[in-house]
Amino acid sequence: MPESPSINDVIESSHPPLGSRANTSLIRMVISALLVCFTLLFTGAPPLHAAEESDSNLLELYYEPSDLAVSAATRSPRPLSRSAEDITVVTAAEIEAQNAHNLAEVLNRVPGVQVDLRGGLVTDYSLLGSSFRHVLVLVDGVSMSNLSDNAAVIAQIPVGNIERIEIVKGPASTAWGSALGGVINVITKSPRETAIPGGSASFSGGERGTRDAQGELTGTMGRLGYYLSGGNVRSDGFRPHNASDSNNLYAKLLWSLRDKGSIRFTINYLKGAAGEGVFPLPARLLPILSEGTVTSDLETSRLTSTLALNYHLTERLALDLALKGSLLDADSRRYFLTSGDTFQLVDNKEEAAGASALLTWRQGLHTVVGGMDFDHGHTKTSSDTFTLLGTFPAPSEGTNDKWGFFLNDTIAWERFTLTPALRYDRTSRDGEFWSQSLGATVNLTDRTLLRANYARGYSLSTINFDPAFTNERIWAIHAGIETTEIPFLWLKAGWFRNTARDVAVNGERLRLLKEGFEVEARTTPFFDTWLSLGYVFIDARNADTDRRLQEIPRQTWDLGLHYDDRTFRGALLGHYIWWNEPSTRGGIAFNARYDDFIWDLNLGWKAYKGQNAEAELFFTGHNLFNGRQYTNEIFVNPSRWFEGGLRIKW
C-alpha cells in the first residue's frame, strides 16, 4: 500500500514547477474566488448591534477607543478584536512616554520586532526573525523600503508626527503584495478640528552633543484642515566616526467634503547624514593597500507625497483613490582613516510612482474590501572603487512594474469572525503571485478572545540583481489567545509556524522552517503603577536537514515598571535579545556580545497644566548598568548616557 502523504508533502506540492504554474494558478483563482463569493451569500442578514457593542469589552481597559480600529491587515478599518492576524498597535501616547527620537527606537520596544540599533542611520531589523527584506514599511501608504535591497532607513523616520503604528507580524501579502514577513504601517496625525491653532514644541539635549528639536502646528480653516511638522536630530556619536544629523519636514492638508468624505494631500521630506564607523579591510587586500582601516559616511534624502480621495458613494459603499510618488538619493563614501583618500563611492537613485483604488462595502454581517494597486519603480546604482583593487563594478539598473488585485471580507456574526482574503500580483521582473489567507476569531466570553490565521505570502527579488535575493514564498499559521479572565491582568499569547522557500540565510538558499511563541502581559494600574512583560522565542531550522540555523534571533525579553498619575510619569524598561550569531562569519570574527539586559529610565513631570496649554519636563537615562548588546564589535552599543528636555503643547 502506498504511504499517505504528510502535510509537508501536500504543502510542497502546491508549489509546482514553472511549466505548470499557469494551470495551478487558474485552479487557485477559481477555488479562492469561490471561497470569497460563498461568504457573500449572507449579505442580506441584518447587522448585529449586540456583537458590535461587545467588540471592545476585552481591550477597552488597555487601549483608547480610537485605537481599537486597525487597517493594516485588510486596507480598511476594523475592530482589533475582530482581527485574526497577530497585530500590535503602538499609540502616540506610548511613543511620547518613551522619549523616542525615531521609529527604530520605538520598534525596539515592541515584542516580536528585533532591532539592532547601530547608531546614526544604520539600523538592522527583523520581524519574528524575518529579515528586513521581507518586511514592508509604510508611511501614509507609501513604501519606505528601498527598491535596491528592500530595506527602510527606519532610524531616519521621525516619530513626532505619528498617530499610531500598526504592526502585522506574519505574511500580509493578501493586502499589500510583497510582504512575506509582515507590515509596519505608520499612520500620521490628522489635522485638529478647531479653528484655533494647536501644536507643540520640544527640545532635548544630552551627552555627546545629542540634540533633538521638533515642532508641529495644526488646525482647521473652514473646510481645510492642516497639520505641519518639522525638526532636526543630531549627535556627535558614541563611537568613532559615528556622528549623525537628520532633518524632517512634513505637511498634511485635508479638504472636507462634508458628509461625503475628504481629499488628502501629504508631503514628507527626510534628509540625513551619518558616519557608519571604522571598518578593518579584508585580509586579502592588506598586501595591496598601505592602510588597514577605512571609515564610511552615508547621506540619504527621501521625498514622498500622496494625493488621496475618500468618498462615500452610498451609506454602505465607500471609494478610496490614491496617487503616490517617491524620490530617493543615497550616497555612501568609504575612505581611508589616516589619509582621507576615497576608497569607494556608491550612489543609489530611485524613483517610484503608483496608484490604488479600493471599494469598501458594509452590509449586514460583512465588510468587503476589493481593489487594485499599481506601482512603478526604477533604481540605478553606480559604484567607483579605488583603482589599486583593479575592480570597477558596472552600474546596476532596473525597473519593476507591479499590478495587484485584492479582495477580502470580514464576516462578523455575534462572537465569531471569519476573514477570507485573496490577492493576485503581476510583476514585470518576477512574474505572477497568488496570495491567500483565512482567519477566524471567537469571543469565548466577554474577556477571552481566540485567534487563528493561515496565510501564504511572498517577497520580490531585489532590483540590484544580487543573485542571493530572489523572490521567496511562505506559508504560515498563527494561533493565539487574548484574555483578561485572570484578575488585574491582561494576557496575550500566540504560537506560530511557517515554512519559506528559497530563503537566503548565511550564504545558503534553503527551505526555512520557523516555529515559536510570544507572550505579552500587563497588569491593571494599582496606585497608578503597573508592570509589563513581553517574551518571544524563535526556533529556526533548515527544513530539509533539520539543522538549527544561526543569524536569526532566538529569544527576546521586554520588561517594564511603569507609573503615571497624569502629573508625574516614569518607566524603567529592560530589553534583552539573544542574537544567535555565529562566532565567525565569512572567516571574520565579529566578537558579538549580548549577555546583558539594557535598562533605560524615562521620567516626565508636567510642570504646568492650564486650560489650553501644558508644559512637561522629561529625562532619560540610557543603559543604566552599562550592558553590552551588539552583533559586531564595530557597532558596540553606547554605555550609560543621559538626556533631558522640555515639551510644550497648546
UniProtKB/TrEMBL annotation:
Identify the GO cellular component terms for this protein: cell outer membrane
Q: Where is the TonB-dependent receptor plug domain?
A: 81-183
InterPro entries in UniProt: Beta-barrel_TonB (IPR000531), Beta-barrel_TonB_sf (IPR036942), Plug_dom (IPR012910), Plug_dom_sf (IPR037066), TonB-dep_rcpt-like (IPR039426)
Main localization category = membrane
The record describes its membrane topology as:
Multi-pass membrane protein
Q: GO MF annotations for this entry?
A: siderophore uptake transmembrane transporter activity
Q: Which residues form the TonB-dependent receptor-like beta-barrel domain?
A: 297-624
**Which keywords has UniProt assigned to this entry?**
Cell outer membrane, Ion transport, Membrane, Signal, TonB box, Transmembrane, Transmembrane beta strand, Transport
One of the GO biological process terms: siderophore transmembrane transport
Q: Where does the UniProt annotation locate this protein?
A: Cell outer membrane
**Gene3D superfamilies named among the record's database cross-references:** TonB-dependent receptor, beta-barrel domain, TonB-dependent receptor, plug domain
* Protein family: Belongs to the TonB-dependent receptor family.
Q: What is this protein called?
A: Ligand-gated TonB-dependent outer membrane channel
Q: What is the lineage of its organism?
A: Bacteria, Pseudomonadati, Thermodesulfobacteriota, Desulfuromonadia, Geobacterales
